[in-house]
Amino acid sequence: MNPFETDLLLIPGPTPVPPPIQRALAEPILSHRGGEFRGVLERVVAGLKTAFRTEGDVLLLASSGTGAMEAALTNALRPGERLLAVVNGKFGARFAEIAEANGIEVTRLDFAWGQPAEPETVRATLAEGGFRAVTMVHNETSAALVNPTREIAALAREHGALMIADVVSGLLSVEFAMDEWGVDIAVSGSQKGLCLPPGLAFVAVAPRGWEAIEANTKSPYYFSLRAARKAQAKGETAFTPAIGIIRACEVALELLLGQGIEAVLERNRAMARATRAAALAMGCTLLAAPGFESDAVTAIVPPEGVDPDAVRADLKKRFHITCSGGQDALKGRILRIAHMGAIAPYQILGALAALEVCLRDAGCEGFAPGAGVAAASAILGEALR
Ligand code: PLP
């Protein structure tokens, strides 16, 4: 390998950390009980509120995204209360698993991975009554699919249940509007659309979320959202924060929000459209149902007889490009290419050219040379005009 060549990371988190954010990470550590950090925290929280599109609170936790999922569930629900967990991928299932581990009574509503949650089925299940909350993943990373969160949140509200949404990979990578859509609690993490290292998680809480949290006398200790809110009101965090990542988060938010959320989403849309068009032009199909494909990550199904894991291994070996495979039920069936965060159009075009080589050598041959890149570059060329 050329010693100056760096690997291209195209997995759906952690995503590459661009140089301005790397430089912020190299800054000296600040006291987390001092004025300078207080200013950083204030600006980061303000930026995150814009990103979540909420007037509610955004609380910072030193954890990965799963910690924020657990914090949301254990603060808002008591053991024995009923949760409707909408599951169409690994992370929807994770909500159900966390709830079960904490004594919450879970009803799982499963849809095929790659198919969106169906509002009518959710409505019928909610109509059975007694649900305290609904969980769903907005951008289900494992299936590269965006769920109809706005519709499901409206149904939850209609039935007196809280809407808890996972936007771990959705924040600043696909459209999300917490307040307008009526989401009561939303969780996210640093290592996806924000282009930060893993280790910082966010819980956004709107007024109905707080009502549930305040009514719950049994709160966790480290993940107490009441304690987090109390500390943040004083410009601090309840425990030692992920200081370095929070400083870098200020820079990430400045860079991303400086362009405007719509510009960030539009770029992702173009990259996703290009990737999907290339996959189809190279004889593959897409896992996600048409109209519900994620703009953060694309799940590609190669033709029968072509092993996606062998293709991925070859991409890594010859081109130093790392993409993801399928998880759980999708193991060995798909490969996933992420295009959120700091990934550039030229990197996607290069990756698609390399993918063509690897697909062809794995036996996927029924397409004209260059067909994938031609389809993708036509879309990107037009979109970036
Ligand atoms: N939810 C979604 C949609 C994710 O993509 C991920 C991580 O890939 C998680 C939750 C879990 O986050 P973490 O791995 O940071 O705990």
Please summarize what this structure is.
With 385 residues, the protein is an alpha/beta fold. It has helices at residues 19-25, 35-52, 65-76, 90-101, 119-126, 149-158, 178-181, 207-215, 225-233, 243-259, 261-281, 308-319, 345-361, 371-383, and strands spanning 8-9, 57-61, 82-87, 105-110, 133-137, 139-140, 145-146, 162-166, 185-189, 201-205, 285-286, 297-301, 321-322, 324-325, 335-338. The two termini are 35 Å apart.
Please tell me about this protein's structure.
The protein is an alpha/beta fold and 385 residues long. Helices cover 44% and strands 15% of the residues. The protein has helices spanning 19-25, 35-52, 65-76, 90-101, 119-126, 149-158, 178-181, 207-215, 225-233, 243-259, 261-281, 308-319, 345-361, 371-383, and strands at 8-9, 57-61, 82-87, 105-110, 133-137, 139-140, 145-146, 162-166, 185-189, 201-205, 285-286, 297-301, 321-322, 324-325, 335-338. Strands 2-10-9-8-5-3-4 form a 7-stranded mixed sheet, sandwiched between helices. A 4-stranded antiparallel sheet has the order 11-12-15-14. The protein has a two-stranded parallel ribbon with strand order 1-13. Helix 1 runs antiparallel to helix 10, helix 11 (261-281) packs parallel to helix 13 and helix 12 (308-319) crosses helix 13. The model has no long low-confidence stretch (mean pLDDT 97).
